[in-house]
Amino acid sequence: MAIVVQRPKLTLAERCYLPALAKGLRITLAHAVRILRRKKKVTMQYPEERWDSEMPEHYRGAPALVTDEHGRERCVSCQLCEFICPPRAITIVPEEIPAEDRWAKVEKRPKEFEIDMIRCIYCGMCEEVCPEQAIFLRKDYAITGTSREEMVHDKEKLYEIGGVREGLVNKWNELK
Amino acid sequence: MSEEATVNVQVDGTWIQVPKGTRMIEACKQAAAEVPHYCYHPKLTSPGNCRMCLVEMGMPPRPAPGEEPELDKDGHAKIGWMPRPVIACANTVAEGMGIRTDSPLTRECREGVMEFLLINHPLDCPICDQAGECTLQEYSVEHGKGESRFLENKVKKPKSVEIGPRIRLDDERCVLCSRCVRFTREVVDDDVLGFVDRGSHNVLTVHPDRPLANNYSLNTVDICPVGALTSEDFRFQMRVWFMRETESICTGCARGCNTLIGSREGKIYRQTPRENNDVNSAWMCDEGRLGFHYLNSDARLTEPLVKDGAGHRPIDWPEAIRRAAEGLAKYRGGGLAVVASGRMTNEELYLARTLAETLGAAAVDIVKREGEGDGYLVHADKNPNTAGARAVLKLRSPGSKLKAIKKGIEDGSIKALLVLGENLLKAGFEEGTLKNLKFLVSSHLLANPTAKLSHVVLPGAGFAEKRGSMVNATGRLQRLNKAVEPPGDAREDWETLQDLNRAVDGLDGVGEIADVFAEMAERVSAFKGMSLSKIGGGGVHLIDTDERVPLLEREAERVREGLIVG
Lengths: 176, 566
Description:
Chain A has 176 residues and is of the alpha+beta class.
């Protein structure tokens, strides 16, 4: 059933719109004057000047893999991020951790882990879905390259961006 | 007790009629009320040890002498509900029985059983191959509490134990349902698995001197409701939720076990049996199951080749077809022979036959492939479609004309040969004999010595890369489906054969594979009235044979004894 939306009743001043025009012009002019009197700065001299210090905690930059405080790579290659990734930017090739490895107990790790940064849309779903707290969106935003291949972050690059995270996952410890 | 006898059972308030002797769990299934279970499997005995299928049950109270039973408004005797739950898997229904699969008591039971099962279960899901098809995961979502009250340390058990050449065991994940123990004992008579130790230290283990190495061992991985038993071959290869499953059949022998092919992005990762009670029950042999790896081989032929001087060089399809057709047509009328294969589909065999007819080939035959049967599922005939070849190529005794063909080549009466999917050097032909030929065309999957000797080589498609139909040893017509694309420029063989046909008969028109089947159904009496779509997922019985499947015979016997549901 159609809903009838009541039009708001406008006053005479609102209907002839000139006062609103003047009001807008006043704001614009005020900004212009402040800039001319060097009271306000609107341009940042990127890349010499950067916004990094003002970036909020929840900023979503490049996704990266992290190791834990013992140097263990947190990712166990469950491929949930690969599954959830809306633009299908993630490709994982799993492998078994050899028996002589210190972390043989974890059994599985990524042999290859690639994120195509041309595809990545920085949505953060990989971070949200990760059951091992292994992938995080960092504050890196200037992801550039001169070729498509360069824009694919491999495992090494991802750990380099990611660094170390402490705590959170204790299930692979000796006591579980 | 007659087979027709039925009883009235009330499931969740609805009255249904089921055959007498039906298990409660099966009656619930018929009423579309799925009862969760771990240990129950219709093809195995029911020990009733997982307790997951507990349901509330009631019977009409026995009336006192002279008293009439109290009836409800539907005219059924009123049910007196029992205070204690019963397991639905090992109990059979009775007249007037009531089952509640969704009552507070039932729900509480399931929640309790789930809590106990999850007490010591590791948090392995991210690395566990079963994740995604794990009943523990599913029931934990449906019937679990969602949180743990367990504060103590979990019990540690052996992890990642090799219990056989193809099986890895993780005891921490095991829910002690004993399906694998019963399978090895009851179905394949290889009683090597069992439980040892007591209480929370109770673990599944293998006989110390006898590994789980029988040819059916990987079925235990399929029936394991959790990730305790995993396949060495499939381990960590691909998560199950990525795979697309294609219904097909195994082409390892003449049994034609029904399968599901799991593939992702053009690569096959695993093959699992698909239930068909006229062919393979719910099982298949390890050999057949793992027999798909050659499709990913580096030796696959990916483009048509022609011999130029000493070596081969790639060429495009129209040119390859033209050269092959011209070369064969030169020896029209008795100067050539066709060696087909029992691994070809009916459609391919039919097109090979029409090609041979147009060219007036001296002989058409297939290569026999005999092995040993094992008295379960494995058949002695290793060709998956011998029965089809008999019908389509009108062969009395497959393989009997090969000697004549060989002799013909040696005495020069056969100058050209078309070989389809067979390496003749393994079929009794010598290199010298084949060198006698003026023209040799062959189609292969993998590079081999016969391909090396051929003037034109046509790359073909493997069983999972094409559509078609085959007839198994018991005369059942079954369908192959395409799970992945053939590699490179390789094409489905029936397309190649159809093009060759058109090149030699000069007619117009190419059809779909269904058209090829329709044409075959008109001309080959065994296929009368059939079409490719009529075959369906389970196949249809086509040719009467006196063949029996030993494993199915034994299972039928166990059903008669009331040991299993079947």
